[in-house]
Amino acid sequence: MIQRNRTPRNKGETAMAEPKVEAKTENKFSSVTEMIGAISSDDHVADSVRKRIAQRQVVKALFAMRAAKGIPQSSVADALGCTQSRFSKIENGLDGDLSISELEAYARALDQDVCLVFRDRNSTAVDRVKMHAFQIKKELERMAEVAHKDESIAEAVAGFFGEAFFNLVKLVQRASNKLPKRSNDEPYIHIGVAELLCDEHHLDAPKPRELSRRVPKPVASVHANA
Amino acid sequence: MWNLNPLSDVPKRLDRFKKKWAHEMTNVFDNLDTVVEALNAGTKAEQLKQLGFVHSEPFGVLAIDQRGPGKGSKLKQFRLYVFPEEDAEQLHLITLGDKDSQQDDIKQAKSFAQGLLQKKITDARRRIKDDSAQPNAAK
């Protein structure tokens, strides 16, 4: 905790309140679920908070989108065909109380599509990564198809492919950096995309956005060499 | 992404209230999660006041109450005082209290927010002073 001493004021200086409490620089948390376990000495309270948050994920996501877009409750209530007080109950209720038609109408009022994903309950992390990878492949192929329509689209898509390649490899590289090391302090795997691109194409500082504009071709050749 | 920065008062008060007022504590922290979700989605701190469970206090302090599912109006009133530092994307959790400590809690929260704002003003002044001193030094 940073402590600040009381400083003498000059004559005529505006009386600003003395900072009695200062920001703690440590113990920062990215979510309430993460924080509650650390600050509560009672597991029961922490579990109860986590359970409640898990039960309200969908309504919270919808609410957050509505608030960010500045759409009033009344507009969405109209779209749902219900009163504002009923709508308020939906927003403050649990996901289980929300019907699929209400969810769809709410999303539509926010100009959003609803995507439902069914997943095997026993699926592993590897299965989930593969599922997303397959989805990425499908979307990229769809973009490649669209690129046949126009040369400028093809150019843009090629640029994006370069960016996507770099970012995806970088993503795996970052995750691999979090792996433990072997007993001899050697990493289990070394993914050196930055060095690879620098060595092959003499880029000083590979930045994804620049890469897409300047050198889509070399990325393709890296892929071919690999 | 917004970060949560709980000051030392929050865990202490939570420890004091959690046994008797577990439901209220769950609601307060669930509401806090909603606030974080909204901030992460791009909602401005100013807009958070439209939430039924968020109250506005002086110097940009917000008070999050215990409203939520269950028990209805029978819930005891609690407030978690927070200060959203928008440029740093940090939500400072200042203190947690009931109606009895409300006046002291507000005073404490105001003092914290003022301190932080004052520090920002001092830093900005110092930066301006440094910037204006540089060209003179070059001459």
Tell me about this structure.
The complex is a heterodimer of chains A (226) and B (139). Chain A is built from eleven helices and no strands. Chain A is mainly α. The N terminus and C terminus of chain A are likely disordered. Chain B is an alpha+beta fold and 139 residues long. Helix content of chain B is 47%, strand content 20%. Chain B has three helices and five strands; from the N terminus they run βααββββα. Chain B has a five-stranded mixed sheet with strand order 1-5-4-3-2, sandwiched between helices. In chain B, a hairpin with a 4-residue loop joins strand 4 and strand 5. The chains are: A mainly alpha (226), B alpha+beta (139). At the A-B interface, helix 1, helix 2 and helix 3 of A face strand 1, helix 1, helix 2, strand 5 and helix 3 of B.
Short description:
Chain A is an all-alpha fold and 226 residues long. Chain A has helices at 32-39, 43-55, 57-69, 73-80, 84-92, 100-109, 125-147, 151-177, 193-201, 208-214, 216-225.
